[in-house]
Automatic annotation (TrEMBL):
Residues 1-51 form the DNA polymerase beta thumb domain. GO terms for molecular function: nucleotidyltransferase activity. The lineage of its organism: Eukaryota, Metazoa, Spiralia, Lophotrochozoa, Mollusca. It holds the Pfam family DNA_pol_B_thumb. This is DNA polymerase beta thumb domain-containing protein. It comes from Dreissena polymorpha. The keyword Chloroplast does not apply. Gene3D superfamilies: DNA polymerase, thumb domain. InterPro entries: DNA_Pol_thumb_sf (IPR037160), NT_sf (IPR043519), PolB_thumb (IPR029398). SUPFAM superfamilies: Nucleotidyltransferase (SSF81301). Keywords: Nucleotidyltransferase, Transferase.
Amino acid sequence: MGMSLSEHSLNVGVVRNGTEKIYEGTPVPTPTEESVFIKMGIPFRPPDERDH
């Protein structure tokens, strides 16, 4: 099971068969941009500290 991120939500428990989604997963509450990074296990850096 994996994750799926779109402009609408971050979903966990996504099931795929190759590129086909079998199960869309469950949306995870992500009220801030930082919370998206945390849930995905990626270190958060504020926009002004990111490479352009």
